[in-house]
Amino acid sequence: MPGLYILPSSWLLDATPEAVWETVASPEMSWPRWWPGCTLQDLATDPSADAADPVTRLLGTTVRLQFRASLGYRLSITVHPTSAARPRIIEFDAGGDLAGTGRIRLFPVASPAPGVPAQTRMDIDWRVRPTRRWMRVLTPVARPVFTAAHALLMRQGERGLRRELAQATRRGQPNSVLTPGE
Questions:
Q1: Is the peptide bond before 87 cis (omega within 30 degrees of 0)?
Q2: N- to C-terminal Cα separation, the chain
Q3: Residue 24, SS3?
Q4: pLDDT per residue as tens, the chain (182 positions)
Q5: 8 Å CB contact between 21 and 101
Q6: CA-based nearest residue to 138, from 78, 69, 37, 92
Q7: Side by side, which strands form the sheet with 61-68?
Q8: Could you tell me which of 44, 41, 22, 40 has the C-alpha nearest to residue 31?
Q9: In 10 A of CB 150, how many CB atoms?
């Protein structure tokens, strides 16, 4: 489809899926704290969402984030989770400067040896179209440049999340996460 960007990323993180989930799926939207170039523009929550259930709170959240691309432009993106299964998957609608859908999936990675910390593979899939006129006009010739800028932005996010998870581990937070059934 013309103008459609399919942008997959895969991150390997030194934490359990539960610990990654607690950071990535926070209804309070922690991304700007750890993702360089990401700022919070607006956070709206559904007041009728069950405050005791984090998944319900997450699904009642809409956030508008601004990302600074390496090429100097900024993108304002609205993210609204549409489904979630803790601690494995979040699907969301995206709006603003990029419209479409996204999905984050978390997979535990088997430890290669006893004593080696748990790891999680986080797969992020975006299927979006630019809504800004200048991006739509340039897409036929600038697609490789936009795709490279996205890849760089995602690497920055991965590095930031790695730092955030390492700090949380030093504070002892991931060990306090309860999994379903505990």
A1: yes
A2: 46
A3: helix
A4: 569 999 999 999 999 999 999 999 988 899 999 999 999 999 998 888 777 888 988 999 999 999 999 888 999 999 999 999 999 999 999 999 999 999 999 999 987 778 777 899 999 999 999 999 999 999 999 999 999 999 999 999 999 999 999 998 776 654 434 333 33
A5: no
A6: 69
A7: 5-13, 119-130, 98-109, 89-96, 74-85, 61-68, 38-45
A8: 40
A9: 20
Task: Tell me phi and psi for residue 57, to 5 degrees.
Answer: -60, -40
Half-sphere CA count of 89, side-chain side, radius 13 A? 7
Between CA 5 and CA 143 the distance in angstroms is 8
CA distance 34 to 13: 14
- Could you identify the residue written with the tokens 């535990």? 108
